[in-house]
Amino acid sequence: MYRPRVEDNYTFKSESNAGSIYSRATNAHSVFRRFLRLVKIKCGLLPLQWLKAKAEECVAFGNKRG
Questions:
Q1: Cα(60)–Cα(4) distance, rounded to whole angstroms?
Q2: Which single residue of 7, 23, 49, 66 could bond 16 by disulfide (Cβ 3.0 to 4.6 Å)?
């Protein structure tokens, strides 16, 4: 959900968020965390059991190489 949106914005609109990999940042952790916070406040987009720890798991997973 996040990466395809960022990719499309970059490809089709020539937009890159400050702090994203498309703005030459070494990682996009802060931008991704902000995205997760925004999604969290939208009713019904995340499961009810969503916790901050799950967000950190997502960031760690995205940081894996390979």
A1: 18
A2: 23
Nearest-5° angle of CA 27, CA 7, CA 5? 100
Question: With contact defined as beta carbons under 8 Å apart, do 25 and 19 qualify?
Answer: yes
Q: Report the Cα 43 to chain-centroid distance in Å.
A: 18
Q: Give yes or no for residue 65 having a pLDDT over 70.
A: no
Give the CA angle between residues 27, 12, 36 to the nearest 5°. Answer: 40
Tens digits of per-residue pLDDT, 17-50? 777 777 777 777 888 888 888 888 887 788 877 7
Among residues 21, 8, 18, 9, the alpha carbon closest in space to that of 62 is found at 21
